[in-house]
Amino acid sequence: MQDKPISFSIKDWNQDDQPREKLLHKGKSVLSDAELIAILIGSGNREESAVGLSQRILASTEHNLSALGKLSIKQLMQFKGVGEAKAVTIVAALELGRRRRGEDALVRQKITSSVSVFELMQPIIGDIQHEEFWIIYLNNSNKVIQKNQLSKGGITGTLVDVRLVLKNALEVGAIGLILVHNHPSGNIKPSDVDKQVTRKLKHAAESLDIKVLDHVIITEKSYFSFADKNLI
Questions:
Q1: Which of 5, 72, 110, 205 is most buried by its number of CB atoms within 10 A?
Q2: Are 218 and 186 in contact (CB under 8 A)?
Q3: Among 42-51, 56-65, 87-96, which is the least confidently predicted range?
Q4: pLDDT the model gives residue 166
């Protein structure tokens, strides 16, 4: 008769090895990334603890949480001991963390430079695998009023609805716009289409006394600013 697989729960470990207890008694900041993930998945398998399993998952992404956040449910389920429920839990937790970064940036965000645009938008579009074009609407203090996705999947002149951009700018009372899109390839150099779209929006906005202040191209780790390069 085949032995039934054994699942090692956190509660069965030694006190010093229990991440949940460690968090309760010492605080969240003292836990390693692997220990935090172990709390999410709850148990390992007969060969390794939840912490050991978490360490193995992290090692596959060189301990980079951003890279871990890109793994699909199917990819996570390739690890022995990770079923669909655990994979979903990991994906959901990392997505919450990504959204929190975006919200924190928005709460404190006053656009003062291209760096602040990067800090605001990188958590949203910096590591996705398709192109998205966004508009940031600013008030007269250069504070963010709103940020909207304009198109998804690629950038062409036909996908940039100038009327929609300006209609929304008037509705929210924006006096400044910043154009933002990502390059999944990691190449920050603007294309001819990027330049054409910038000119198109800039000239249209000027007729309503609305300024296009910058166009920022974002990748996972870097960015290109039209304003910084005097291209706008």
A1: 205
A2: no
A3: 42-51
A4: 93
Chain centroid to CA 14: how far? 36
pLDDT value at 215 more than 50 = yes
Q: What 3-state DSSP class applies to 151?
A: strand
Q: What are the tokens at 181? A: 């899109």
24 and 39 Cβ atoms separated by less than 8 Å: no
pLDDT of residue 177: 96
| Cβ atoms of 8 and 43 closer than 8 Å | yes
Which residue is it, tokens 């996570």?
A: 76
CA angle 200, 203, 207 (to 5 degrees): 135
Quickly tell me which residue has 């990188």 as its tokens.
122
pLDDT of residue 16: 42
Residues with Cβ within 8 Å of residue 166, at least 6 apart in sequence: 204, 205, 208, 210
**CA–CA dist 59, 69 (Å, integer):** 13
Q: Does the pLDDT value for residue 62 go beyond 70?
A: yes
- DSSP character for 154? -
Q: Taking phi first (over 0 means left), then psi (-120 to 50 degrees means alpha), and beta for anything else, what does residue 209 get?
A: left
